[in-house]
Amino acid sequence: MLADYHVHTQYSDDSVYPMEEVVLDAIDLGLDALCFTDHVDYGVKRDWDDPRGVPVPSRRPPAEPSGRQK
């Protein structure tokens, strides 16, 4: 089995590699498995240089045990 267990995509602050290209390149290389290890920045990297800081999204209330929100 040939695999790459540490791949960053454009969703990490240290990569610009589109996820779709990673998958296509892995197929071309004959990889059997991939593991995306992004830092879960989801575009926040563009705000790091903003002198006002990085916006923090509001937190949703936890779901009820039934799965319904209050």
TrEMBL record:
Q: Which CDD domains match?
A: PHP_HisPPase
Q: Name one GO molecular function term.
A: catalytic activity
Q: Which InterPro entries match?
A: PHP_dom (IPR004013), Pol/histidinol_Pase-like (IPR016195)
Q: Which SUPFAM superfamilies match?
A: PHP domain-like
Query: Where does the PHP domain lie?
Result: 4-41
Positions of the region Disordered? 45-70
Report the superkingdom from the record. Bacteria
Q: What is this protein called?
A: PHP domain-containing protein
